[in-house]
Design brief:
This protein is of the alpha+beta class and 318 residues long. The chain folds into 3 domains: 1-37, no CATH class; 39-159 and 251-306, no CATH class; 164-246, no CATH class. Helix content is 31%, strand content 23%. It has 11 helices and 15 strands. A 3-stranded antiparallel beta sheet has the order 1-4-5, with no helix packed on it. A hairpin with a 4-residue loop joins strand 10 and strand 11. Helix 2 packs across helix 10. It is globular, with a radius of gyration of 22 Å. The two termini are 39 Å apart.
């Protein structure tokens, strides 16, 4: 079932949430799934308001809009033949209610319409972090994705303020034990991206068993306001675990602290993005390409590219 409104002003109210765009209902494995189909620009306006600080300079907001659009294009291409591209749990999508409208952010999205970054000739997964502590990590290294992404960079501005971004956290080991459903924790190992020094996962040990917990899960359980970043060390003494670290956020992609300083000297979004996403190109992409064809062997091969290649092969064998 597909419901397509005849007016762009039409909205749907589903379980108390307001939606714009088309509504599709599918029966998948004997369960009804409701899909909201919206254009990318509306999707960005609906999802970024809660994720982006309202006090960022306009040029930084432009850069964030481009990075977010790049990420949206990547996921749409990755899941092009699925019933949906992303889930509301993954993105925090809560419809298109005007209650969360951010005028400055909406303006940035409009100003950068259709602009995306490409790496190895295609969009890629992107992110931003509040304060990188002096270095950023590649998306692939922290989120463990088997796809080509720009490498991390050394950020001089953030590095000069690294000491000022110091934080510490004291946690009872029984709180950590609850994460892996055990009675105690005797040790904790860190999996580190050696280029950036960022932690992408931890291994909790109870003396007999061990279990791995990725950083994002650990931070969600302990709280972002407590475990502020993945640039940390940890020591356990008795029943107390001491975390000491620098920066804020997962350390991937655009560093908002540094980007704001760069914007103060008058740099526009393209120059800001170039600082954090090396070997990328800024392009205007009005629609998803049928296939992303890259000559780079390390590049992610999208399902569309695989489909296109198969079709070409069949034609060659006629």
């Amino acid at each position: 079932l597909q419901i397509v409104p005849t007016s762009s002003e039409t909205t749907f109210l589903i379980d108390g949430t307001q939606y714009r765009g088309a509504i599709e209902v599918y029966n998948i494995e004997n369960r009804l799934s409701i899909i909201n189909e919206v254009d990318v620009e509306s999707y960005l306006k609906a999802t970024l308001s809660e994720k982006v600080p309202a006090n960022l300079p306009p040029n930084v907001l432009d850069a964030v809009a481009i990075a977010a659009r790049t990420d949206a294009y990547y996921h749409a291409l990755l899941n092009y033949d699925a019933f949906w591209h992303v889930t509301k749990e993954e993105t925090g999508y809560q419809g298109t209610s005007l209650a969360l409208q951010n005028i400055a952010l909406d303006r940035a999205i409009d100003n950068t319409k259709y602009l995306v970054l490409t790496h190895e000739e295609q969009p890629f997964p992107t992110a931003w972090t509040e304060h990188c502590g002096g270095k950023t990590a590649s998306y692939a290294s922290i989120f463990r994705k088997n796809t080509a992404t720009p490498e991390g960079v050394t950020v001089t501005i953030a590095n000069k303020k690294r000491k000022e971004s110091y934080w510490s956290l004291t946690v009872e080991t029984k709180e950590l034990a609850k994460l892996v459903k055990t009675n105690r924790i005797t040790g904790m190992d860190l999996f580190v991206d050696h280029t950036s020094g960022k932690v992408y996962a931890t291994r909790l040990r109870d003396g007999t068993h061990e279990e791995d917990v990725d950083f994002m899960t650990l931070q969600k359980c302990l709280g972002k306001e407590r475990l502020k970043s993945n640039d940390f060390t940890v020591s356990i003494k008795g029943n107390i675990a001491l975390f000491e670290g620098y920066g804020e956020g997962h350390g991937v992609g655009l560093c908002l602290f540094s980007a704001s300083k760069i914007a103060e000297r008058g740099d526009l979004a393209p120059a800001i993005l170039a600082e954090f996403f090396p070997h990328t190109t800024l392009e205007k992409m009005r629609s998803y390409p049928k296939a992303i064809v890259s000559s780079k062997k390390s590049s992610f091969v999208s399902p569309k590219q695989q489909e296109s290649t198969k079709k070409k092969a069949r034609l060659l064998h006629k």
